[in-house]
Amino acid sequence: MSVKNAKILLTGGGTGGSVAPLLAVAEELRIKNYELRITNFLWLGTKHGPEREMVEKEDIKFKAIANGKFRRYFSWRNFIDPFLIIFGFVQSFFIILKWRPDLVMSAGSFASVPAVWAAWLLRAPVLIHQQDARPGLANKLMAPFARAITVAFEKSLADYGKKAVWTGNPVRRSMTTRNKEQGARNSFNLKSDLPVVLVIGGGTGAMAVNELVWQNLNELTKFCQIIHIAGRNKKQETRNKKPNYKNYDFLNAEQMADAYAAADIVVSRCGMGVLTELSYLGKPAILIPMPDSHQEENAAIFAEKQAAIVLAQKELTPEKLADNIKKLLNDGILRGKLSGNIKEVIKRGANEEIVKIVEHICKIAI
């Protein structure tokens, strides 16, 4: 009996945070010999976000749609974005009508909202993934139209009721296959006798974190080497000539795997994609959540479990960050404790669990 190759429409973007878990699920579907053959994907995202490059690198077709944002504060864009959302809905409606996916998947982001609404209207089943500890507005707007909602944290089950399934957060296989440390260091032309700190500002860059590093770079590079991912169009070429400092705007999945393997500790924002990777790899970390955002709740979970050092940006100075980095590098017992604890924060096996749900929904749709 022939097996149908089901079609899945993936949607999200604006930042890389809503993209990574969907790519992890797509990767899992492609490499495993599941009953259904699911290799036919289409992605709907934003025109200018980082997702196009990430998606097309994985040989997934990409279409850009108009997108707007529902803001709960005053902005002149509030007068324009409703029309962009309507236009994005119309675009999504006709794309879905023509392509006829067996499932539509989103992991948040306002770019997904018009597509999910259009999918529901056309009776295409929807699967939503909730990464963060706090449900975002986009997922709240999409949840009523979803067949199932997978969540990264057990506490999120209460936010979505009977539709929710606790799976953990999916992660790319390339991130969990650690390279040998020395080989990874060689790929960045790093010394073998000086510790390495990986600084991650997020896919679009966090200038506050970047500045904390740049303003004390002379001191930091005296006692460690730094791989600094500053974000798109944020890196500063003039700093690349500084000894013990490597400055990048973006690294692909394979390069990120090398960067993780090379690093003794990681300094990062608190997007769930990075936090999941840190958990799977057991990396000692210093976390600087974005102030007054969902990232603070993500970070609080890691702090509560003594799985990372969490520093409040509003109280942080370049000198204080450097002191914390130095103390962690010099304290092997603390690094070992953080490494062990962070491995326990994120439930394992999310890729396989979500794939089972995808297969179940697609079988019903077919």
Protein architecture, described:
The chain is an alpha/beta fold. It folds into 2 domains: 5-169 and 347-365, Rossmann fold, CATH 3.40.50.2000; 176-342, 3-Layer(aba) Sandwich (Rossmann fold), CATH 3.40.50. Helix content is 42%, strand content 16%. The protein has helices at 20-31, 51-57, 81-99, 113-121, 137-142, 157-160, 173-176, 181-187, 207-214, 217-223, 253-262, 272-281, 294-304, 318-330, 332-342, 350-365, and strands at 5-11, 37-45, 61-64, 103-106, 126-130, 148-151, 164-166, 196-200, 225-229, 245-248, 265-268, 285-287, 309-310. The strands form 2 sheets. It has a 7-stranded parallel beta sheet, sandwiched between helices. The chain has a 6-stranded parallel beta sheet with strand order 10-9-8-11-12-13, sandwiched between helices. Strand 5, helix 5 (137-142) and strand 6 form a beta-alpha-beta unit. The chain starts with a strand and ends with a helix. The mean pLDDT is 89.
Please report the distance between the alpha carbons of the first and last residues. Answer: 15 Å
Structural class: alpha/beta
**Record field, number of beta strands:** 13
CATH topology of the largest domain: Rossmann fold
Roughly what fraction of the amino acids lie in strands? 15-25%
Q: What integer value in Å does the Rg equal?
A: 21 Å
Strand order of the largest sheet: 3-2-1-4-5-6-7
Outline type: globular
Summarize the structure.
The chain is an alpha/beta fold. Helices cover 42% and strands 16% of the residues.
List the helices and strands and how they pair.
Blueprint: E1 5-11, H1 20-31, E2 37-45, H2 51-57, E3 61-64, H3 81-99, E4 103-106, H4 113-121, E5 126-130, H5 137-142, E6 148-151, H6 157-160, E7 164-166, H7 173-176, H8 181-187, E8 196-200, H9 207-214, H10 217-223, E9 225-229, E10 245-248, H11 253-262, E11 265-268, H12 272-281, E12 285-287, H13 294-304, E13 309-310, H14 318-330, H15 332-342, H16 350-365
